Amino acid sequence: MILKKKQCHQRQKRLKRNGGNFGEILLNNQLYFASLPMNPLKKFNIWFEEEHQQQQQLRFPAACCLSTIGVDGYPNARFVSLKEVTENGFVITGTLSSQKGKEIQQKSTAALTFWWTATERQVRIQGDVIEISEAEAIQYFKERSLDSQLVSTVFDQGKRIENFEVMQTTFQQKKETLATSIIKKPEHWSGICIQPKRIEFMDFKTSRLHERTVFEGSTGNWTSYCIQP
Q1: Helix axes 146-154, 164-178, angle to 10 degrees
Q2: H/E element, 197
Q3: Counting C-beta atoms within 10 Å of the first and last residue's C-beta, which end of the chain has fewer, N or C?
Q4: How far apart are the C-alpha atoms of 229 and 24, rounded to whole Å?
């Protein structure tokens, strides 16, 4: 089961992408990261910024692959949007009644993988999963676009449908009905915080002698080492 809910939230600086849609990411207080020796979360933020600076028109800068253990025992993966980096970890929001939500309920561990084309870098994150607080979930939901709020309210993510035409018709009808209303967060919609236990940074080299650095531990107590390409 998901570990007990706790605050995974200390936002002080926000970098918006795409008007708050798929590419939005929130970065935490840089002073906090700077105060910690050898902190991989600070390194992640630096790499993220360097990628964005080289690709100003990048449509989905916060896109990443979220991997979980399926209920059938097989690995499962999908692309999601990173919403925030906090002192506790990496925040992802979405429908927790979905397949990924069920998988996390069964096994509260996950991995995130980023590949950044401009800087030719990869980041791999493994860790434990906790659910964010209800207050945080409500705030994240308010920041979503109207269409995103409607999709989360109208549909049950991952469930079968008769056909796409029915889906589109249903969406348009609900949009006309709810467009002028304040849409409340559905009960099944929330978020998770992946608390990293292991983070690997790979700087790709054309020589194939890639520079790979691994951080292991937890907040405030990290060790690092290099591994072969």
Answers
A1: 120
A2: strand 189-203
A3: N
A4: 32
Cα–Cα dist 94/217, whole Å: 27
Tokens of 132: 């964010």
Model confidence, pTM:
0.82
- Identify the residue whose tokens are 């002073």: 31
What is the rounded CA–CA span in Å between residue 156 and residue 177? 18
Structure confidence by residue, pLDDT tens digits, 114-165: 999 999 999 999 999 999 999 999 999 999 988 999 999 988 888 888 899 9
Burial of 151 (0-12, 13-18, 19+ CB in 10 A): middle
- Between the two ends of the chain, the Cα-to-Cα distance in Å is 36
pLDDT digits (tens, 9 = 90+) for 181-220: 889 999 999 999 999 999 999 999 999 999 999 999 987 7
Residue labelled with tokens 């109207």: 146
